[in-house]
Predict the 3D structure of the following.
Amino acid sequence: MSINKVILEGRISKMGELKTSQAGVESIKFTVAVDRYSKDKEASADFIQCTAFRQTAKFTSSYFQKGKPIVVEGKITTGSYEKDGKTVYTTEVTAESVGFVVGDKKSDGGNTAQPTQAAPAPAAETPTTAEETSNEDCPF
């Protein structure tokens, strides 16, 4: 079993435009700046490329803009392409959900990330009455 899960909290440093493919799938590319601190207290940032699709892309396009804080939950995807006869390798995050950052870390000292799913998964239907849960349905 392997796990490919990423959670980022940062600010949008670059925001692309919402695009629609020929197949009708919406997508948007954006970059998240995530602060990185070193032992010598110098602040720097990692700039992480992200791509969102479908409902998550629409949500991101509608509610976020450059400079705004964001929480991204997704998976790492890699790829490659040829440029000037050389292979260029890419790594980015495919956003499965994005959310707002609520509050101020400096004032409350806690984790302020409040992820909000752009496209919630449908709830599983469970039987609620005795008639719906018959023993005949059991495989044993």
About this structure: Residues 106-134 have pLDDT under 50 and may be disordered. Residues 54-63 form the longest helix (10 residues).
